[in-house]
User: Which sequence fits this backbone?
């Protein structure tokens, strides 16, 4: 019997990682099997010029536009490539048509001024510009459950396109708080003692989002409702126990050009640093 062949030493600590979804496997066979059956094949972003597979959007960007970019690919890319989603188009016409829908503009500073000045928690909802088409949401979570790992929404903030805070309030968590995560959230028991009930926060948030239009009206093709922008919106909405029509959600964790690979998102921290400086 060939003892050497059975020695698992070398593979013990080398886990095999799927380059698309970053799932790890102890055995190579399992990774191969995973790649066969997973729907995310072809796995990585692919160069539209030479069809090379890259392990992330970052490396594809390097390949197309970095200092060591492949000369031919980078030449084509500079004329016919979208610098956001890195797709290559067959004419400058279709590229400029595409740019209209792929365009993301980054405002100078995204830090809402009112948050910096330590706004009192009783202050909420200044008025929102009626013309605003989109609002961004962020929730602050404290911990519930025996180990404090369950996310409970304790603060929510909405910002309009001009960075005005249009809604900002603490919220009474629905379950007992076992960890305030103070270092991260700055939230204390005292701050939540007279906080807004979740239901009232819902009503106010939905009032801003639907712009006074009824949910029914919206479902029947209303046009007044605003876009809701956020990072990993499903999580925020779940914690708020709120739902909002899918076609009105814009999620920076799900938007392909901002993702790490076809399946894995970047962290919000990373996105802000990279795209907003
Ligand atoms: Zn995978
Ligand atoms: Zn290429
Ligand atoms: Zn694009």
Assistant:
């Amino acid at each position: 019997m060939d003892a050497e062949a059975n020695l698992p030493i070398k593979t013990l600590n080398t886990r095999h990682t799927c380059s698309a979804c970053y799932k790890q496997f102890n055995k190579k066979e399992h990774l191969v099997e995973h790649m066969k059956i997973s729907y995310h094949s072809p796995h990585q972003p692919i160069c539209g010029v030479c069809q090379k597979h890259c392990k992330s959007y970052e490396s594809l960007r390097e390949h197309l536009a970095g200092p060591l970019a492949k000369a031919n690919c980078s030449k084509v890319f500079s004329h016919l490539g979208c610098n956001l989603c890195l797709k290559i188009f067959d004419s400058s016409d279709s590229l400029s048509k595409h740019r209209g829908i792929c365009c993301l503009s980054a405002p100078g500073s995204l830090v809402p001024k009112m948050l910096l000045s330590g706004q009192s928690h009783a202050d909420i909802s200044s008025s929102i510009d009626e013309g605003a088409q989109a609002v961004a949401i962020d929730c602050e979570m404290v911990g519930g459950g025996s180990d404090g790992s369950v996310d409970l929404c304790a603060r929510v903030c909405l910002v309009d396109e001009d960075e005005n805070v249009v809604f900002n309030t603490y919220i009474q968590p629905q379950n007992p708080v076992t960890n305030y995560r103070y270092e991260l959230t700055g939230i204390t028991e005292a701050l939540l003692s007279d906080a807004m009930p979740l239901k009232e926060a819902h009503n106010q948030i939905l009032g801003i989002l639907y712009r006074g239009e009824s949910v029914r009206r919206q479902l029947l093709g209303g046009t007044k409702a605003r876009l809701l922008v956020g990072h990993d919106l499903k999580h925020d909405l779940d914690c708020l126990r709120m739902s909002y029509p899918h076609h009105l959600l814009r999620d920076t964790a799900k938007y392909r050009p901002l993702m790490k690979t076809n399946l894995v998102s970047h962290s919000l921290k990373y996105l802000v640093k990279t795209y907003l400086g």
